[in-house]
Amino acid sequence: MKNDCLFCAIAAGEIPSSKVYEDEICFAFYDIAPQAPVHFLVIPKEHIGSVAEISGENSSVVAHIFEVIARVARELGLESYRVVSNIGEQAGQSVHHLHFHVLSGRDMTWPPGWSIGQEESRRGTPAALYL
Ligand code: AMP
Question: What separation in Å is there between the alpha carbon of 16 and the centre of ligand 1?
Answer without folding.
Answer: 13
